[in-house]
# Entry
Amino acid sequence: MYKFATAFFGFYSWHMLGVTVGYHRLLSHRSFSCNNKLVEYFWVLPGYLAFEGAPMWWATIHRAHHRYVDTPLDPHSPRNGLLHAWWGWIAKRHYPAHVNPTLQSKDLNKDPVYRFLDQDGDLLRAAGLVVGFNILFRTLILARFGWTIAAASLLAGCTAMQVPVMLNVLCHLPRLGYRNFDTEDDSVNIWWVALLAMGEGWHNNHHAAPGSARSGIKPSELDVSWLVIRGMEKIGLVSRVNDPICNAPAQSRIEEEAEFEEEAELEDELFWQTHLIPSAL
Ligand SMILES: [Zn+2]
Ligand SMILES: [Zn+2]
# Structure
């Protein structure tokens, strides 16, 4: 039992950081740059092996979430139905009509690995690849380490897969958390979601400054993903780490975001660029 629990905790942390550091803060928001492409793949891999889906699909849907947050065009806002926000939006064969990875994820579309995993936008085929690689990975674990470790790995991957899905819903239900920023959406901070999701539960902070590599801003808001990114920066693996929340007064951050929104209404494509850090691409 001790062996199982230790393996579960290790795999869960690895997979969860793959989602938060790799899929979310790196690929979706480019909130920091990797000094070597292998470092990027190192963080994307555990997200992929937690059944998270193709990296380009994940990032493009997430960018659309920020672009259209809590409007009818938001891919998974609870305002458009709880069941849809939880699982309904995933059960689709193609991207929604207003979401286009070749336009909104040009940076990721240049990478042949991400293009291959996306399978030309055929989400069923892309999901088949995810399942195939995940089965292969657990089979290798089983062959090398035996049933206990393989079972812990599978359970940890499945558990980590559920957390972002749950976060999408719960962190957009105002009655469940608190807000540090008066953003124009329903996002809230929930402490226990932040613990489970390595810092991503500080979701209102995140919506106030999506391009920030840091989501926890108060001393009480533990952000494990931020600590990992800072650690990598200190040993020279990553650079251009974006931390605008703590380098500028909170109100000015909100005004900056509002300016981005205004620009986006004039030129939609500009939005996708302004919510990334051009120098990090
Ligand atoms: Zn959100
Ligand atoms: Zn985000």
Remarks:
- Confidence is low (pLDDT under 50) at residues 248-281.
- Residues 2-280 form one domain.
- The two ends are 45 Å apart (CA to CA).
- Residues 2-28 form the longest helix (27 residues).
